[in-house]
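Most newcomers find our protein records easier to grasp once they have seen one. A learned vocabulary of local backbone shapes supplies the integers on the structure line. Here is such a record, shown just as it appears in the course material:
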Amino acid sequence: MSATEVQRLAEEKGLTWDDLAEALRALPEPLGTRLSATEADVLRRLGIDPTESSRAPQLIGVLQRRRIEASSLTVAEAADLLERDASRVRQRLTGPNRSLLGFHRRSGQRDWLLPEFQFALGLHDLDGWARLLRALPQADDSSPVALVSWLTNPRAHLGGRSRAKALAEGYDVDRLIAEAASFGMPA
């Protein structure tokens, strides 16, 4: 289900984007696949039973995508944070030497969004981060939600840390690169 379809359905049910934004804010950290009580309530108000609807996974994906978008930086914001020119930030987002995680906004615009966690954890300055990103598909070539979840969900084998946090704390990047080979495969 596209964002436009969600918007149309929300309007039919008398919900606003603020209602949906409230559900987004309630998504658990890190991104997961379970609905919060607020999200389930919004879906019910849309006329969708989140426990029985085949559309629930699509809606969860839309909500997660919107949450990632809302917590991401624009190129201009990242450039200000890094004290670099915006063109330099864009160079770091693509190609064989990419060193920042980014994806394009879905709204038909070609604006880049950069997930904030990579800056909060200091990953943007690590060579290991660039190496890990190059071992993974571009976010636009897979799914930004899947990629961000793969990087930010806690993992038992990392002592409950996410891959991103483990890397920021000095975990062996070569081990994470080996795991990246299985990205997108069922666990």
About this structure: The radius of gyration is 17 Å. Confidence is low (pLDDT under 50) at residues 27-32. Strands lie at 72-74, 103-104, 112-115. DSSP finds eleven helices and three strands in the chain.
